[in-house]
């Protein structure tokens, strides 16, 4: 039986999650920007912002991040991923900070896999978006 490092576990979960993404390159754009949003505004505000959106990429990234943070051995273990905002607002600051650091590490993999598997939109000099 081989043991995976936490980094390998993050990568494996992120890869599987990104492979299941049904939305388009807007997901990659969101995956690129979400780590910065978490860093600047905090995990709770970033997730609340995404949950307030109705588009599929926002729902998908909140789902994958919530499932990761609520998994075994993670900061929000033994909570339901659907209750991520309740969990964030009910935990102590130490747990919140652990979750935020874990979210940033996980989202780095999501960002890499989204670029590799889905691709990116690029804006040309004419202001149009190209794939």
From TrEMBL:
User: Cross-referenced InterPro entries, in alphabetical order?
Assistant: AF1862-like_dom_sf, CRISPR-assoc_prot_Cmr5
Name the UniProt key words of this record, in alphabetical order.
Antiviral defense, Cytoplasm
The name this protein goes by in its record: CRISPR type III-B/RAMP module-associated protein Cmr5
| Protein family per UniProt | Belongs to the CRISPR system Cmr5 family.
Q: Give the matching Gene3D superfamilies.
A: AF1862-like domain
Q: Which SUPFAM superfamilies match?
A: AF1862-like
Report which superkingdom the organism of origin falls in. Answer: Bacteria
The compartments listed are: Cytoplasm
